Amino acid sequence: MNFSSFAKAKELQQRILFTIIILVVYRLGTWVPIPGIDMVQYARVFEQNSQGILSMFNVLGGGAVERMAIFALNVMPYISASIIMQLMSATIPSLEKLKKEGGEAGRKQINQYSRYLTVVLATGQALAIAMGMNAVNADGLSMALNPGPFFIISTVVTLVGGTMLLLWLGEQITSRGVGNGVSLIIFAGIIAAVPGMLGNALSLSASGGMSPGVFFGGLAMIIAGLVLVVFIERSQRRLLVQYPKRQQGNRMVGGDTSFLPLKLNTAGVIPPIFASSLLLLPATAAGFQSQSGPEWLQTAVAYLGAGSPLFLALYAALIIFFCFFYTSVVFNPEETADNLRKYGGFLPGIRPGQRTTEYLDYVLSRLTLIGALYLTLICLVPMMMSTNAGLGGTSILIVVSVSMDTISQIQSHLLAHQYEGLIKKSKLRGRKR
Description:
The protein is mainly alpha-helical. It is built from 17 helices and four strands.
């Protein structure tokens, strides 16, 4: 980055300052607890079930779940709603037509549907949380200070309102700040948990609970994982596309070449999120009932616990499945081949039409296999080293992806500022002449 250019880019500085202020507001909200909760009872229940999906959501939410703050749901309902809308847009003809032919208005309409679905999902999740805290256990204790309908309603309203406020703050960052607002909110939550994790590791190492070799070995593995994620996320297979020459009047035009980039990890971070949610959600729900439930339920919870061999095998299988499934949703080889033929482009040695579709599908399938194995490695190795589901590769993937996207946007703003400066200088020179 050119720091002299950054010092002159006042608009970019204002955008970065605005982004930081919004993220500070978000972090303050993760410390404001929901009213009417017995934090002693809630802390005891959270500790008993902190190895399931609660741990993952707690890390993604920057500790808001552990404190049951107003932002405890974070923006995860919106992420789920957006993914569901993407899948529906690829399977429902009316939504597919709106997405392809609606243009900007169609995109805004689909985003509006995503917000409505966010409210529905957030309400369902908040209601489940409120009813769980309102219930009285076998000891006659409840996580609610005053259990009853009013506590349930107030908790649902607070949690849903917190999610929608975060969504609005994220949109403000996207339009007036730097980077994707929703992604930066999740990024800030994960980064906020890093000092605490590092502090715990250092204290364990100092007290003798962890040997220096294990500490530095774990640190080296984290660095190696970051390097691997950056390398794979930036890697792509570029297919050469040629455009034939054609005559317009008395001259020949065309004959250009370009590249069709295919990422190794087309599905991004979606497969680990889907896979972990499908496995951890029922396991966590069963964990709440296992101590007082039948023996078979306790056995099922033990076999499906985070880090168990069965859990790791199912987790790997689901990641690979969702890699292929989600890639087939976001990239359509037939549609890409039709677009190439429409604009006169072709792949050298491959006939346009069906043969191009088959070749794109062939290449994409092998790239997706590499991406699926990479995601499986990144997500399973940390989980095998620790039973804490929140300390997985999903967090690393999100941090790296958001960091690269934000840096790319900052560089784009700097480049635009430099172009504006050149244009102003050329205009001034023109006036002097």
